[in-house]
Amino acid sequence: MKKKRAIKLVEEKLPKKRFEHSMRVAETAVKMADLFNGDAEKVELAGILHDYAKYDDLALMYQLVTKYELDRELLAYNSEILHGPVAAALMKYEHGIEDVEVLQAIFNHTTGRKQMTLTEKIIFVADYIEPGRNQPGVDEMRTMIFDEKKLDKAIYDISKRTVKFLLENDKCIYPRTIECLNYYNLEK
Ligand SMILES: [Fe+2]
Ligand SMILES: [Fe+2]
């Protein structure tokens, strides 16, 4: 899929704020691809499309999990976990994206996983540090990436914050998030 078509798809579907976030994730991801020798075209496309299913109806998302034979464990989770896998399935089966790296980066952008490709890592982190984000500690994370170039350490720290947040709010933790936390704890 060409960049122009991806932008049009997302612009037509998402609220303005989320569309702008998506574009900033894509821009941040391209900068990171330059820095870490990633594939700028792939990360840009994945960045534009990663939140495509963010506001899809939950009942529809559950239907798509079954239709596209995604992990049935996803059915125990809400849109925060589902929107990545569902967006990847829609891009693969309904919009003809064949690039596995782009699809994986969209699929895993919220949870991460162990042994991510560079494209996945970049989208996972870019989503967290794009310039519109202002959560506590995000500046340290930007320094970790753009000055210290510690990509795996950033992935570990983001996973750690996510797990802490979920525990403190009595939310379930999707197994891939734990898998990501453990793997990058040893890689960092
Ligand atoms: Fe997302
Ligand atoms: Fe996002």
Which ligands appear in the coordinates?
Answer: fe (ii) ion
The CATH class label is Mainly Alpha
Helix and strand run: HHHHHHHHHH
β-strand percent reads under 5%
- The rounded Rg comes to 15 Å
What characteristic shape results from the CA principal axes? Answer: globular
Helix content range: 55-70%
DSSP summary: helix tally: 10
Give the termini separation. 34 Å
Question: What is the CATH homology-level superfamily?
Answer: Hypothetical protein af1432
Secondary structural class: mainly alpha
The oligomeric state of the chains shown is single chain
The third-level CATH topology is: Hypothetical protein af1432
Q: Low-confidence parts lasting 5 or more residues at pLDDT below 50? A: none
Number of strands: 0
Outline the structure in words.
It is built from 10 helices and no strands. It has 188 residues and is an all-alpha fold. The protein has one domain: Hypothetical protein af1432, CATH 1.10.3210.10. The protein is globular and about 40 Å long. One fe (ii) ion binds next to helix 2. It holds the Pfam family HD. It catalyses: P(1),P(4)-bis(5'-adenosyl) tetraphosphate + H2O = 2 ADP + 2 H(+). This is bis(5'-nucleosyl)-tetraphosphatase (symmetrical). It is an enzyme of class 3 (hydrolase).
